Amino acid sequence: MALDRRKLLHASGLAAAAAVVAPFAPSATATNQNRPGKPGVLVNGADVAAATNWSIFAGRKVGIITNPTGVLANFRSIVDDMAAKGVDVRAVFGPEHGFRGTAQDGASEGTSVDPRTGITVYDSYGAGVADYVRFFESSGVDTVCFDIQDVGARFYTYIWTMWGAMQAASQTGATFVVLDRPNPIGGQARGPVLQKGYESGVGQLGIALQHGMTVGELATYFNAVHLPAAGLTPIQDLHVVEVQGWRREMTGPDNRAAWILPSPNMPTPETATLYPGTALFEATNMSEGRGTTRPFELIGAPYVDYRWAEALNSKGLAGVTFREAYFQPTLSKNQGLICGGVQVHITDPTRVEALEVGTHMLVEAKRLYPGFGWRGDAGRWMGLLSGSARFAQQLDAGADAGTIMDSWRSELDQFVRDTRGYLLYNGKR
User: Fold this and answer.
1) Cβ distance 149 to 182 under 8 Å?
2) Same domain for 181 and 45?
């Protein structure tokens, strides 16, 4: 059963690039080569694969997990392009928000037939492993392709869609191909690691909140470590078609015009940059900006006044400034109410520490406003987002931001050590 965000249901250069995607080469993900790339020139995995006329899928019966971000450099959907070029696409699997991206948080588009291609689109949001097995078997796919732009936060659900599909691929013997894309907030891991007992639809494995990996790197890590831990055999045919030219220190898209909303409330690269920190406000009675044009940048509540912006600006946090703001959400929390609060403006995206920003914002809101409170069951939602009960307990006890952030240092360091061998791009972090 998936976690519904609203109901808090707990639940467990192309010619050269073509050589990288020789069909199902055994070494495709077996080595951790340093690939320095060429900064400023990025070629996503989908474009690398398309440059060979999708030869990686020759003779395969393909199911595709994707959404509006699964496009080529010319903005054509990979599903449309594959179908037009003779790839035997048997099914599409739509994640949260749906294949065409029309649904809000905690929702999907349902199962339907795509009118352009005639391909069945299965609603896979909230699907369990048994559901994926049934989807794969009923559609007849022997190869599963994943291509969705992640935003680098553990509680962004697309990586858990991939994890569920990987478990099913292990059970059915399907080949699994990841068409990789950059992590738009960079390749550095930050924040607390999910602890046992806090697994849900917004976090199913023990990874850092800001995991600092691409989906291709996560797939190699999940395959080698977490599938065996779940009692499953690693996928024998797992292949990552790597991004060309990406480095871990790179943040944001190389071309802002190429940014496609990964979900309805992720409109800009700035939103993604702040999201690992400001999304924690989903666990409170404050609006996280849903129902405005700047979600996760506008934060506030009816009880907030000018003092919050003043207190936050006095901290001198790197890469951001806080503007006193007033807004009226058209949906979600505090719908229709005038909220005071702040808009977080990014002044230097290379210096922003989203978890630092979010933690200071929470600490100051709790200190200043008696009306500040938890959404749901006494901080349980914060536990699911942050990964344990610790964050809410420390905040309730009056801990300062430094104390809260120090509390996850050792587990974060261990996560970095554990994942280092699965990084595909320019070495260590």
Assistant:
1) no
2) yes
